[in-house]
Amino acid sequence: MACPPPSQLTSFELLGFGDCGWGATLLWGLGNSLLIAAGAYALGFLIGIGGAFGKLYGGPILRDVAAIYTTLVRAVPELVLILILYYAVPGLLNEVMVALGQERIILPQFITGVVVLAFVQGAYQTEVLRGAILAVPHGQIEAARAMGMSPLLVARRIILPLMTSNAVPGLGNLWLNATKDTALLAVIGFSELTKATYQASATTKAFFTFYPAAMLMYLLVSMVSIYLFSRLEKWARRGQRDVRG
Amino acid sequence: MPDQGITAARQPNTASQPIAIRVSGLRKSFGSHEVLKGVSLTAREGDVVAIIGGSGSGKSTMLRCVNFLETPSGGDIEIGGEMVAMRPDGSPADRRQIERLRQSLGMVFQNFNLWTHKTVLENLIEVPVHVLKIPKPEAEAQARKLLARVGLAEKEGAFPAFMSGGQQQRAAIARALAMNPKAMLFDEPTSALDPELVGEVLQVIKGLADEGRTMILVTHEMKFAREVATHVIYLHNGVIEEEGPPDALFGAPKSDRLKQFLKTVG
After folding, report:
1. Domains of chain A (ranges, CATH numbers)
2. Which of residues 135-174 of A touch B (CB under 8 A)?
3. pTM (2 decimals)?
4. ipTM surpasses 0.95
5. Helices (DSSP H) in chain B: which residue ranges?
6. How many CA atoms lie within 13 A of B75 on its CB side?
7. Of B131, B145, B26, nearest to B76 (Cα)?
8. Residue B51: pLDDT over 50
9. Which one of A85, A99, A149, B60 is least enclosed by Cβ atoms within 10 Å?
10. What are the residues facing B43 on neighbouring strands?
11. How far apart are CA A47 and CA A113, in angstroms?
């Protein structure tokens, strides 16, 4: 295709979906960012639930493993973790595969990205969820136990719904973190929104067009997320009095 | 001082009635502090056993050991003719047995402990539907009958936080009744209530006593204990200081400690 030099295109054309526009690239990047964030967040939630209940109700070994995990992950910069997990873990995995006489495998970038960010999310969610469980009034749990509910049923029917309202503000923060942490995956070459923006502006030199556009997209994602989490919190707080009285 | 003008105390059941709850030689320590030093209690079917005593006497702990909300340190507990299997240290040996026996004991707490994320009706059907596996429509019909009985028919859709303490406690009693328990355990059911709300809750409890329900009641309401109990236990420092029929205990206390106690609370 024969595009005119970028300097002769308007911002509108640069951001558009025409042959010479980068709109599709940016949207593709945004979609990738959201998919990774959602996958990592969901997987991180499962890790967090396991970690929180493990820390509170688990045996000594489970508690120690959970403590080491959350301490390490929260101590190391996420960028470092991403680099370690992205380069070191697949390498280690392949050495194991080779040692077992198996073919080397190449992990899809998307899966690796989700797993790496979920590993980070899981540690933070463990702490948010642990705090949320601890904030459930003990009498609520005691009433359930007194009526013969099994520990699993108490967790599912009483603790989980009651901790939700305590957890939503913290979990909302972590979701916003997750959407922005996807930008760190740009360093390993994953084509999410930040990488796509970088490519577009490096090619066209129109930095002041693409970076503000990307910022706007991140902002939009945040605003929609904040709205949805406030709805979720309202639902989770059903039955509670307004603190303003 | 005990009031002489109240109705005659009900009679304890004869020895022919089966034993609903028996506690023998119950001991409980928190760390090095021994709260219960070998206390015993027998409630036959239809009995109302009131446990009275000062703060820190161990009366709530004794009640909470019956359904293992507190793990005893020693002694035996028998519910509905079934011995609770305990390890040598007093902890329950069989979690499923504890869960099954708890379903036959309706517990009412000082602070109501209704589940705040559920409406009153949802509170009442939670255990019947999810533990006892009663079909939901049946459980709801039963729950509505119980709510009508405690005077809360209008409140089935309300959340506990928006009800008065008296209403919450009546709903909590209905929730316990919804399991169709063999016995009821009351842990200071009126202690957290404003004085003007105590009467409505006591009235509901009295109604249950009148229909011959087996109950163990930890209470500070001496007049009420005298009125509904078939047997009263006075606990002091983890030991049963004195026990007997309410008229004897309140009308002619023998020990100096009980005399002193009745003077201070009377």
Report:
1. 25-235 (1.10.3720.10)
2. 137, 139-140, 142-150, 153, 157-158, 161-162, 165
3. 0.85
4. no
5. 59-66, 95-102, 120-130, 136-149, 165-177, 195-210, 222-228, 246-251, 256-265
6. 23
7. B26
8. yes
9. A99
10. B21
11. 16
